[in-house]
C-alpha cells in the first residue's frame, strides 16, 4: 500500500477573478474532475472527453444553526495518491485493487454560521466518489434540513429507475428517457405492494442506471451509508439535473450530526462498456476495511427454505390456520432434503409465536424471538440437524418494530448460539416503530448497523429483508452478507405484474451495484396453482434461466427457493444448484446490456471450476460463448443446462436440455436462449 503527493501534472490550482479552480484526473487519465469555488462550489466530470456531469452545485441547508452552505472561503487544498490491493473475506474476486487520486478542499462557510467543511473527492478510472466532512469545531451539533448535492446530466438519457419511496424498494424497474419519469404514475401501476411514501412525480431511488445517446453508461449511488439517511434523487426535467433528497425523520429533519462527522460517499460510476460497470469495485473501495478482527466463522453457503409453501398456499406462517408449515415433522423433511443434496442449512419461517397478530397492527411487542410454537420442537430439530450435518437458519420478522427487536437481540442471538445456528434472516415488514420513522431514515440506518454489530458479537451472519439498499458495507461488516432491498423472487407470486423477464437483467445494474441480493432463485414449478386451483399467478422465466440466476445475481447466501417435491421431479437440473459455488476466485462479465441480456463466468474459490450464467429478457437470443477465460493447455468438461428448442416462458417454461461437452480455452459454443430464458454451465478440469 502506498500514499504519496500527486505530481503537479495532474493537479492544478489557479485563480480567475477571485475564483479557485481545480482539475484532477484519474490514475490513467480516463476521467477528469473539475471543481470551482466561485460564487458557489461546483464540480463537473468527463470520461474520455465526454461530459458525464455538467457543473453541479454542492452544499447544505441546515435547520440548526439556520444556514445555507453553498458559498465558501478556501482554507486549504490537499492532494494525494493511493494504491492498495486488499482481500475480501468473501466475494466475487479473491483480491481487489483500490487506486485513486484524492482532492481535499478545506473550506469555511461565508454565512454568519461560519462553519468549517471539507469536501473530499476520490477519482478512480471507473468513476468518482465524494463526500462532506465536518471537522471538530465550536459548533458541535448540526441538524440537516437538506443536502443540496446536484448531478447535472448532459441530456435526456435512457434511464432504469424505480419511484422514490421512503419505505419500499420492491418495485419493478421502469425503462424510459429521463423526461418520461413519473414516479407516482409508476407506483400506481404497482398493485402488488402498498405504496407507503412516494415522494413525488420526479423522485427516483438509487442506484440509478443511465445510458447516454453517445454510448456512455452512468450509475449514480452512494457508498458507506452510516449514521445518515438514504439519498433519493429529485429530477428537474427542464435541465436534466438530479438533486439529492434525504429521507426525513418523524418531525421532518433529515440528519442529526455531532462533529466531527461525515456523510456517505456520493458515487458516479461511468464507462463506455456495460460490462465494466458491473466489474466496478468503486463502491466497495470507498468503504472502510473490516471492523471485525476475526472472520473465520463467516462462511458463504447455500440453503433451502421452509418458505415458499406459505407463498403458494400450501402452508401458513401462523399456527391457528390449521396449515402451520413450521412444524417438527415438516421441517425434518426439509432437513433430510438439504442433507441429501448437499445444502448447508434450512431456513424456517413461522417458527415463533406471534404470527396471528403480526401484520398491519403496528404493535410494538408482537414477537419475542425466543418462544417457538408448541408444534415446533427446537431441541429435537437441532439434534436432528446436527445428525444430518446441516444447520437450522433463524428467521426474525420484526414486523417493523425495530425498537422491540433491539430490546430482544441479546436473548435472540444467544438462543441461536445455544441451538447451533449461525445465520439469521431479518425482516422489517410494516410501519416502523419508533412511530413516524421510515425504513430508510437515519434512525433505521443506525438500527441496521446496531443489528449487524450485535450479531457479530455472537458470530451470527445476517441477511436483511425490507431494509435499506446496500452501499458496500459488507466490506466493513462482512457478516452482513446479503440484503433483499428490491423486488425479489417472492414477487413471482404477485397477482399482477410480479417479476417480468427483463427485471433480472436490470437488477445487476441497479440494486446489486451496492452489494449482494438475497433474491432467492431456483423455482422449478411455474404455474402457482398447485394448492389453490383458482390462482392464476405464474413464474415468468424458464427453468434454465432460474439456474443461471445463481451466477448472474451474485450472493454469498443462495437459497433454493422451491418445494422439495418440485425439485424431486427435476433432480438432474437440481444438480447445478447443488454444484454451483457461492464464493469466487474470479468473475468475468462476458457480455451485458441493461434490460436486455447478461452473461457472467465465475471461477470457484480454491477450485479449478468455472460456472457460467446467461439470461435474456422477453426476447429470444443467440449466445455466442467463447471459453477464452479458461487456462491454456488444459482440457475441461462442460455440463450445459439450456433451454430446449421449444422452451418459452409463456408456453414451455420447464423445457430444458442437459448436455456434456469437452471444452478448452479455444472452444466457441453457440446456444439459443428462449424468450425469458437462459442457460447455466458448470465446467470442471479433466484429470
Polypeptide structure, described:
Strands 1, 9, 10, 11, 12, 15, 16, 18, 19, 23 and 24 form an 11-stranded antiparallel beta sheet that branches. The chain has a 7-stranded parallel beta sheet with strand order 30-29-28-27-26-25-31. Strands 32-33-34-39-36-37 form a 6-stranded antiparallel beta sheet. Among the domains are: 2-285, Beta-galactosidase, Chain A, domain 5, CATH 2.70.98; 301-485, Alpha-Beta Barrel (TIM Barrel). The protein is built from 12 helices and 39 strands. The longest helix has 17 residues, at 402-418. Helix 7 runs parallel beside helix 8.
Write the layout of secondary structure elements.
Elements: E1 2-4, E2 11-16, E3 19-25, E4 31-37, E5 41-47, E6 50-57, E7 60-64, E8 66-69, E9 72-86, E10 96-109, E11 116-124, E12 127-134, E13 141-147, E14 150-152, E15 158-161, E16 174-177, H1 183-188, E17 203-205, E18 208-211, E19 217-223, E20 231-236, E21 241-246, E22 255-258, E23 261-262, E24 265-271, H2 274-279, H3 282-285, E25 301-306, H4 308-311, H5 328-340, E26 345-348, H6 378-388, E27 391-397, H7 402-418, E28 423-427, H8 442-457, E29 461-464, E30 480-483, H9 503-506, H10 543-552, E31 557-560, H11 564-567, H12 571-579, E32 584-593, E33 597-604, E34 609-616, E35 621-626, E36 636-643, E37 656-663, E38 668-673, E39 678-685
Parallel strand pairs: 25-26, 25-31, 26-27, 27-28, 28-29, 29-30
Antiparallel strand pairs: 1-9, 2-3, 3-4, 4-5, 5-6, 7-8, 7-13, 9-10, 10-11, 11-12, 12-23, 12-24, 13-22, 14-21, 15-16, 15-18, 17-20, 18-19, 19-24, 20-21, 32-33, 33-34, 34-39, 35-38, 36-37, 36-39
Amino acid at each position: 500500500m502506498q500514499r504519496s503527493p500527486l505530481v503537479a501534472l495532474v493537479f492544478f490550482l489557479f485563480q480567475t477573478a477571485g475564483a479557485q479552480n481545480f482539475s484532477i484526473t484519474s490514475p490513467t487519465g480516463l476521467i477528469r474532475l473539475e471543481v470551482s469555488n466561485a460564487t458557489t462550489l461546483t464540480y463537473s466530470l468527463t470520461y474520455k472527453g465526454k461530459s458525464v456531469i455538467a457543473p453541479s452545485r454542492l452544499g447544505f441547508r441546515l435547520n440548526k444553526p439556520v444556514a445555507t452552505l453553498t458559498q465558501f472561503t478556501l482554507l486549504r487544498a490537499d492532494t494525494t495518491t493511493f494504491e492498495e490491493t486488499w482481500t475480501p473475506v468473501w466475494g466475487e474476486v479473491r483480491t481487489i485493487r483500490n487506486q485513486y487520486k484524492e482532492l481535499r478542499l478545506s473550506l469555511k462557510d461565508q454565512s454568519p454560521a461560519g462553519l468549517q467543511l471539507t469536501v473530499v473527492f476520490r477519482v478512480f478510472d471507473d468513476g468518482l466518489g465524494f463526500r462532506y466532512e465536518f471537522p471538530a469545531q465550536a459548533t458541535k451539533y448540526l441538524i440537516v434540513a437538506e443536502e443540496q448535492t446536484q448531478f447535472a446530466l448532459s441530456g435526456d438519457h435512457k434511464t432504469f429507475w424505480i419511484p422514490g419511496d421512503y419505505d419500499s424498494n420492491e418495485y419493478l424497474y421502469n425503462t424510459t428517457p429521463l423526461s418520461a419519469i413519473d414516479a407516482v404514475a409508476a407506483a400506481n401501476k404497482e398493485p402488488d405492494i402498498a405504496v407507503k411514501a412516494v415522494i413525488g412525480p420526479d423522485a427516483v431511488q438509487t442506484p440509478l442506471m443511465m445510458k447516454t445517446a453517445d454510448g456512455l453508461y452512468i450509475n449514480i449511488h452512494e457508498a458507506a451509508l452510516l449514521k445518515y439517511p438514504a439519498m433519493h434523487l429529485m429530477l428537474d426535467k427542464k435541465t436534466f439535473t438530479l438533486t439529492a433528497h434525504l429521507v426525513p425523520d418523524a418531525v421532518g429533519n433529515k440528519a442529526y450530526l455531532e462533529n466531527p462527522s461525515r456523510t456517505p460517499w456520493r458515487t458516479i460510476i461511468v464507462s463506455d462498456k456495460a460490462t465494466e460497470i458491473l466489474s466496478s469495485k468503486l463502491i466497495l473501495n470507498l468503504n472502510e476495511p473490516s471492523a471485525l478482527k476475526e472472520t473465520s466463522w463467516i462462511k458463504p453457503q447455500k440453503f433451502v427454505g421452509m418458505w415458499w409453501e406459505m407463498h403458494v398456499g400450501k402452508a401458513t406462517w401462523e399456527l391457528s390456520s390449521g396449515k402451520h408449515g413450521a412444524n417438527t415433522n415438516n421441517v425434518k423433511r426439509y432437513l433430510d432434503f438439504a442433507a441429501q443434496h448437499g445444502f448447508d442449512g434450512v431456513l424456517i419461517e413461522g417458527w415463533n409465536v406471534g404470527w396471528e397478530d403480526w401484520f398491519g397492527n403496528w404493535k410494538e411487542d408482537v414477537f419475542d424471538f425466543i418462544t417457538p410454537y408448541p408444534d415446533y420442537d427446537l431441541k429435537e430439530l437441532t439434534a436432528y440437524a446436527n445428525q444430518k450435518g446441516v444447520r437450522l437458519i433463524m428467521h426474525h420478522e420484526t414486523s417493523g418494530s425495530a425498537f422491540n427487536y433491539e430490546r430482544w437481540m441479546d436473548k435472540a442471538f444467544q438462543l441461536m448460539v445455544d441451538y447451533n445456528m449461525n445465520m439469521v434472516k431479518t425482516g422489517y415488514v410494516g410501519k416502523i416503530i419508533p412511530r413516524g420513522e421510515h425504513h430508510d431514515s437515519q434512525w433505521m440506518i443506525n438500527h441496521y448497523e446496531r443489528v449487524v454489530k450485535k450479531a457479530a458479537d455472537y458470530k451470527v451472519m445476517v441477511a436483511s429483508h425490507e431494509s435499506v439498499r446496500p452501499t458496500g458495507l459488507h466490506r466493513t461488516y462482512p457478516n452482513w452478507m446479503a440484503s433483499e432491498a428490491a423486488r425479489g423472487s417472492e414477487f413471482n407470486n404477485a397477482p399482477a405484474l410480479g417479476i417480468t423477464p427483463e427485471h433480472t437483467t436490470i437488477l445487476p445494474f441497479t440494486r446489486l451495484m451496492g452489494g449482494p441480493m438475497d433474491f432467492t432463485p431456483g423455482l422449478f414449478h411455474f404455474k402457482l396453482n398447485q394448492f389453490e386451483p383458482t390462482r392464476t399467478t405464474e413464474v415468468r422465466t424458464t427453468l434454465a434461466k432460474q439456474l443461471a440466476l445463481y451466477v448472474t445475481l451474485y450472493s454469498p447466501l443462495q437459497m433454493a427457493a422451491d418445494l422439495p417435491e418440485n425439485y424431486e421431479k427435476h433432480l438432474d437440473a437440481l444438480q447445478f444448484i447443488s454444484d454451483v459455488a457461492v464464493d469466487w476466485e474470479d468473475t468475468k462479465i462476458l457480455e451485458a446490456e441493461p434490460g436486455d441480456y447478461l452473461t457472467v463466468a465465475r471461477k470457484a474459490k480454491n477450485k479449478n471450476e468455472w460456472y457460467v450464467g446467461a439470461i435474456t429478457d422477453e426476447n429470444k437470443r443467440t449466445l455466442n460463448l467463447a471459453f477464452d477465460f479458461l487456462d491454456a493447455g488444459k482440457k475441461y468438461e462442460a455440463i450445459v443446462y439450456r433451454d430446449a428448442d421449444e422452451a418459452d416462458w409463456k408456453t414451455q417454461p420447464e423445457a430444458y436440455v442437459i448436455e456434456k461437452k469437452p471444452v478448452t480455452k479455444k472452444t466457441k459454443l453457440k446456444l439459443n436462449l428462449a424468450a425469458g430464458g437462459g442457460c447455466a454451465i458448470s465446467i470442471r478440469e479433466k484429470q
